[in-house]
Amino acid sequence: RYDSSDEIDLFVYEPVSNSNKHELLFQKWNINFNDYKEVPQTDYEKKYYGKTNSLEKVKEKLNWTNNTFNVLYKKLEDVNCMGITRYNSESTEIEFGYIGMGAFSYLIFDKNIDNMQQEEYSNDCTLLFYKDNIVFKYGSGAIGSLCTPEFKRKK
Predict the structure, then answer these.
(1) What's the half-sphere exposure (Cβ side, CA atoms, 13 Å) at 94?
(2) CA dihedral over 48, 54, 60, 64, signed as positive or negative
(3) How far out from the chain centre does Cα 65 lie?
(4) Cα separation, 37 vs 93, whole angstroms
């Protein structure tokens, strides 16, 4: 998630060998990727904030440069969005706005969603199937209602 053109909240997970699971590699808030200073990690930080503090190692694993961050920021800015997440091999989440502490986003699937998935992704609370391969999502944030009335379907 971009806080500004050069400050981001960056969380990176990597696959666990011979498993469908992922583990946290790197997690930092408000980092300036143009002027990042790595500091040694404590054992606590390794356990809860990722295996590394090295932004260089993360960029190498992602095959990204500082220019990649700049290009991504420009593309998100052009469509009035603030963040992007790739959770799995089938969907990408693009955050586009806040309501209180919560955030609205689009889930964009690589393939169209079948009828059963359309029901699953329309729960009258946090998910609303839109069309083809697009679902609207509401994440409530730290406090407040877990649901948004905007997603209540008329029956």
Answers:
(1) 15
(2) positive
(3) 19
(4) 29
3-state secondary structure of 25: strand
Q: Which residue has the tokens 């969005």?
A: 81
Instruction: Report yes or no: 130 and 136 within 8 Å, Cβ to Cβ.
Output: yes
Q: What is the DSSP letter of 41?
A: P
The answer to whether 100 and 144 have CB atoms below 8 angstroms apart is yes
Q: Are 139 and 114 in contact (CB under 8 A)?
A: no
CB 11 within 8 A of CB 30: no
pLDDT in tens, the chain (155 residues): 777 777 888 888 888 888 778 888 998 888 888 888 888 888 888 888 888 999 999 999 999 998 998 898 888 888 888 888 886 678 888 888 777 677 888 999 999 999 999 988 888 788 889 999 999 988 876 665 677 767 766 65
Backbone angles phi, psi at 73, to 5 degrees: -60, -45
